[in-house]
Design a protein that fits this description.
This protein is mainly α. The protein folds into 2 domains: 10-29 and 237-273; 59-233, f41 fragment of flagellin, N-terminal domain. The chain has 5 helices and 2 strands; from the N terminus they run αααββαα. A two-stranded antiparallel sheet has the order 1-2. Helix 2 packs antiparallel against helix 4. It is rod-shaped. 26% of the residues are buried.
Length: 274
């Protein structure tokens, strides 16, 4: 039936053209953003999954920061402990020299001054071994804790090691000297015990640092895996989108042509009245 009021062909052609334009808009958005799922409107379920995974990635970033702070605090404590160990070795040398009964008074006094300077340096090292407000070698805290999971429920703890003078680790007191041969002889054993204790404390701190390092590596790998998973869910395949774009552009042009042909159909009616 020829009708100038109702052009079924044009309506069908317009319907298909609108579908093509809608698909073309979707493909262009994917190319512009690089995402096939850029919002919940594109795919609500996939977007929700991706958002949850993004939340985990953000949480693991905070976990990594916490582990890095913990690692740095332990590293500072290890550095301080190594310095204390070196100072104790020097102090042992001074005490051993001063324990010589044949040493004259002036020489023993010089050795004692060196000894007390080294002793006081231990106190300075302990006092300044601070990172981010934590000092793991002065007895001000018993441990340091870092986050280990995205929900904050898991934590890693490293015990502090009090290396203050006169403590259970460094048993050399802040008042000890080697001003006499007897004091020097006694001090040798005290320093040797302190050295053994410091080495044991360093081993424990090193073990703690390793725990932080292992967990940090695991968290970084897990975060990378999650990011890859998010990409698999929402990233657009540019090769596919490019091919689809060209196909839809051709389809759009053909649709325009089809609509033009359909729109010209009613003009045939005029030939009936000539």
């Amino acid at each position: 039936m020829l009708s100038v009021n109702t052009n079924t062909g044009a309506m069908v052609a317009l319907q298909y053209l609108n579908q093509t334009n809608s698909q073309l808009t979707t493909v262009q958005n994917a190319i512009n953003s690089g995402l096939k799922v850029a919002s919940a409107k594109d795919d609500g379920a996939t977007f929700a999954i991706a958002q949850n995974m993004r939340g985990d990635v953000a949480a693991y970033s905070a976990v990594t920061d916490s582990l890095n702070r913990g690692t740095s605090s332990v590293d500072v404590a290890l550095s301080a402990g190594q310095s204390i160990s070196d100072l104790l070795i020097e102090m042992k040398s001074k005490a051993l020299a001063a324990s010589d009964a044949s040493l004259d008074t002036a020489s023993r006094q010089a050795l004692n001054e060196d000894f007390t300077a080294l002793r006081d340096q231990i106190a300075t090292v302990v006092q300044n071994a601070v990172f981010n407000g934590f000092n793991l070698v002065d007895g001000s805290t018993t441990q340091i804790t870092a986050l280990a999971s995205a929900d904050g429920s898991k934590k890693i703890t490293v015990a502090a090691q009090d290396m203050s003078l006169g403590g259970s680790v460094v048993t050399v007191a802040s008042t000890n000297t080697i001003s006499t041969q007897a004091k020097a002889s006694t001090m040798i054993t005290t320093i040797e015990n302190s050295l053994n204790n410091v080495d044991s404390s360093l081993a424990q701190l090193s073990s703690g640092a390793k725990k932080f390092s292992i967990q940090s590596t695991f968290v970084q790998n897990l975060s990378s895996t999650l990011q890859t998973g998010i990409g698999n869910l929402v990233d657009a395949d540019m090769a596919t989108e490019s091919a689809m774009l060209q196909s839809l552009q051709v389809k759009q042009q053909l649709g325009v042509q089809a609509l033009s042909i359909a729109n010209s159909a009613p003009s045939i009616t005029l030939s009936l009245f000539r």
